[in-house]
Amino acid sequence: MIWNPFKKKAKAATSAKSETIEERIEREIDALPAMLKGKLNDPEVKKRFVEIAKRMEQDGVDFKSIRQMKKWMKEHEEELRREGANIPKVETVVHEGPRIGRNDPCPCGSGKKYKKCCGADK
């Protein structure tokens, strides 16, 4: 047998069986890109994700098969949407005051331009 440096090492099959869903999800989240990982740091999102994974496992979905997971999601789409409607939406922050230009006087009252005073760090 020839050694192949590009071949991935096989993980022990016993470790996957002893892990809980939460541990497996944590392991998968760690492997995600930073942008997606940041979205899943929210405890409510992570909790919802774990709940859906547990329901999939109860229904016998194989997590290694994308086709089975997509099929399950399609079958339960309406039910998941109804449950997701109870989750409060994050509202966008809207600045109500007048917009301050870079060359306008600073609102702090220093007499300097905004870009040289409070806006220097932005």
Textual characterization of the structure:
The model is unreliable at 12-16 (pLDDT under 50). The relative contact order is 0.06. With 122 residues, the chain is mainly alpha-helical. The termini are far apart. The protein contains six helices and no strands.
- Quickly count the helices: 6
> Span between N and C termini?
60 Å
Q: What is the beta-strand fraction?
A: under 5%
What is the radius of gyration? Answer: 25 Å
What is the number of beta strands? 0
Helix content: 40-55%
Stretches where pLDDT falls below 50 for ≥5 residues? 12-16
Q: Spell the H/E element sequence.
A: HHHHHH
Keywords:
mainly alpha, 122 residues, elongated, single chain
Overview in brief:
46% of the residues lie in helices and 0% in strands. It is mainly alpha-helical and 122 residues long.
List the helices and strands and how they pair.
Elements: H1 13-18, H2 21-30, H3 34-39, H4 43-58, H5 66-75, H6 77-84
